[in-house]
Each structure stands twice: as C-alpha cells, then as structure tokens.
C-alpha cells in the first residue's frame, strides 16, 4: 500500500468488496475514516488495521 490515503472506491477495490460493504464497515466502526470537505477518506494504515481485525475474527 503505497498511498497515504484512499477514497472509498479505492479502499473497496483493495478489499475486493462493494462500496456498500465498505460503508457497512465504516458504519459499524470497524474502519476508521475522516472527511475533507464532502469526501470521505481512509488512511492506508486504517485499512490495514481493519484487515487485521477481520482476519483475527474469522
């Protein structure tokens, strides 16, 4: 993961899930995000953290 921040579409693509699934992760506080203006962005570290947490639960 070379990018510092990702858009919702980029994060969904990296996780190979739909936007809807990604927004469910955000709503359930499993994925940390922040907003810049109207754009919701995801730190690459937050995405890695989410993946690690999901893998531990699985």
TrEMBL record:
Positions of the Helix-turn-helix domain: 5-51
InterPro entries attached to this UniProt entry: DNA-bd_dom_put_sf, HTH_17, SinI_DNA-bd, Tn1545/Tn916_Xis
SUPFAM superfamilies with a match to the protein in the record: Putative DNA-binding domain
Lineage top rank: taxon: Bacteria
One Pfam entry name: HTH_17
Designated name of the protein: Helix-turn-helix domain-containing protein
Classification lineage: Bacteria, Bacillati, Actinomycetota, Actinomycetes, Streptosporangiales
């Amino acid at each position: 993961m070379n990018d510092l921040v990702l858009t919702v579409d980029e994060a969904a693509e990296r996780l190979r899930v739909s936007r809807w699934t990604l927004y469910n992760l955000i709503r359930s506080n499993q994925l940390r995000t922040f907003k810049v203006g109207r754009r919701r962005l995801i730190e690459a570290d937050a995405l890695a953290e989410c993946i690690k947490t999901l893998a531990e639960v699985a």
